[in-house]
């Protein structure tokens, strides 16, 4: 048995949840926030048999898209460079996934 922890962007969260339901995959959904852009994320925890791990990974891969987004870097007021900050384009989205072995699983 494995525990899959997948952090996805909120924009992809509902599609992923619907695909999990279609595939009869139980998941626990947690609202989280990202560190870099401080944007909304959703973390899914999925306990799954070893032979279904690739199926879950494929679903996550198919439903979690990367996209481009503009952000304005924070201005460092201590720096001597006083040029204005211009928006920069960054890649966001996709999924960060961890697959962890599970020694025991109990459901009470």
TrEMBL record:
SUPFAM superfamilies: GlnB-like. PANTHER family: CYCLIC DI-AMP RECEPTOR A (PTHR38456:SF1). This is Protein from nitrogen regulatory protein P-II (GLNB) family.
